[in-house]
Design a protein that fits this description.
Layout lengths: L9 H11 L1 H9 L7 E6 L5 H5 L5 E6 L2 H7 L8 E6 H4 L13 H4 L7 H4 L11 E7 L1 E6 L2 H5 L17 E3 L3 H11 L15 H11 E4 L1 H10 L4 E5 H10 L3 E4 L8 E7 L14 H6 L5 H7 L8 H8 L7 H4 L3 H5 L9 H13 L3
Parallel strand pairs: 1-2, 1-3, 6-7, 6-8
Antiparallel strand pairs: 3-10, 4-10, 5-8, 5-9
Helix pairs in contact: 1-2, 9-10
């Protein structure tokens, strides 16, 4: 360190400690080490750029092409310990021993209680939190130049079976999600395992699949924008940027709700004894929950699971037509459910139902 460098104040040391822990302080005091504190592995497009750019010094971001590429990367030795950014479905494929406890009770206390299940990866309530749920949302029906269907929104997910949408509809590639939507069409409680035995369900799923022009919501939206499709079922996050720039599009969440999706940050256990897991950059995480970064997240469709009064205040300046897509009314949100990981037996039953429902 240069002799004329200013000494660090006690306050600055505490700030550094809160942001990155001992490695930050060692770097600040020594000035000679360029070793990174940690790396954030995430999927391209699934963490907002303004937030990524605000990562503390010593942390680096690495973007992978897809969730599967990220999981594949974990099979190789990592140079430095990592925090992972994944959706809940992909995070459920990780083994519990691959993850460290979150150890951020103060941070989790800032969130709405409904985020607690996601923080445990839907394990039992006695399990320690291993994930920070930084965003959540629903699935919505996006329409292109179809005011007639929008006027019939009270029909909910049954609109997907409208004859005018045959081969004009883009649906997600997830069998489980489509079965969940079929359950809602039939008024079945998706959280009740007995619903899978309903005799009407295979035919309902089959009819839904027959409507689809494409089972691929990320690329399938291009069919909608090009005029080859009239409707698509996509995440609320995907819908928000489209709705803000294309006046031909409208969207709504049916009153029966939908499955929820979650975006999570998880601490990966060190892959060798030589590595020490860095503490989470807590101040960086808190910044994503408050203005001005919160406004940037919302503009891109990413909604932190904050208490409703706090989110409502942040959304007060938004167009009224968009607010319910970002934060549905509480009665509708209460009808939404998490897609918790399936047991081997349950997975086999869902697969059997999907096979029975082949068009």
């Amino acid at each position: 360190m240069a002799h004329d460098a200013l000494p660090l104040s006690r306050r600055r040391l505490l700030q550094l400690s809160g942001l990155g822990g001992a490695a930050w302080i060692a770097s600040a005091l020594g000035g000679c080490s360029s070793a990174p504190v940690g790396q954030l592995l995430s999927v391209s497009g699934e963490l907002p750029q303004p937030w990524l750019k605000a990562l503390p010094a010593g942390w680096r971001s690495r973007l992978l092409e897809s969730p599967q590429k990220l999981l594949d990367q974990l099979q190789k030795p990592l140079e430095t310990p990592a925090v992972l950014g994944l959706g809940d479905g992909w995070a459920g494929q990780l083994q519990r021993e691959q993850l460290l406890p979150l150890q951020a009770p103060g941070l989790l206390a800032l969130l709405d209680p409904r985020a607690a299940d996601a923080s445990r990866l839907f394990a039992d309530p006695d399990s320690p939190p291993v994930a920070f749920p930084w965003a959540f949302g629903t699935w919505v029906l996006l329409l292109r130049n179809r005011p007639d269907l929008l006027r019939r929104r009270q029909e909910g997910w049954n609109l997907l079976l409208d004859p005018t949408l045959r081969q004009r509809l883009v649906l997600p590639a997830s069998p489980r999600l489509l079965i969940e939507l079929a359950m809602r069409q039939l008024g079945l409680a998706s959280r009740n395992a007995a619903a899978l035995s309903d005799r009407r369900l295979p035919a309902q799923v089959r009819a839904l699949r027959a409507q689809a022009l494409s089972l691929d919501e990320p690329d399938g939206v291009n069919f909608l924008l090009a005029g080859d499709a009239d409707a698509a079922v996509i995440t609320s996050q995907q819908a928000m940027p489209l709705l803000q720039r294309d006046p031909r599009l409208q969207a709504f969440l049916p009153d029966s709700g939908s499955p929820l999706w979650w975006q999570l940050l998880l601490r990966l256990a060190p892959q060798s004894d030589a590595q020490a897991a860095p503490p989470l950059p807590l101040e960086w995480l808190r910044d994503g929950l408050s203005a001005p970064l919160l406004n940037r997240l919302l503009a891109a469709g990413w909604v932190p699971p904050l208490p409703r009064p706090q989110l409502s205040a942040a959304l007060a300046r938004w167009p009224e037509r968009l607010r319910p897509l970002l934060l549905p009314p509480e009665p509708v949100l209460a009808r939404c459910n998490n897609l918790a990981p399936l047991s081997a037996a349950s997975r086999e039953r869902w697969q059997q139902l999907w096979d029975e429902a082949a068009p």
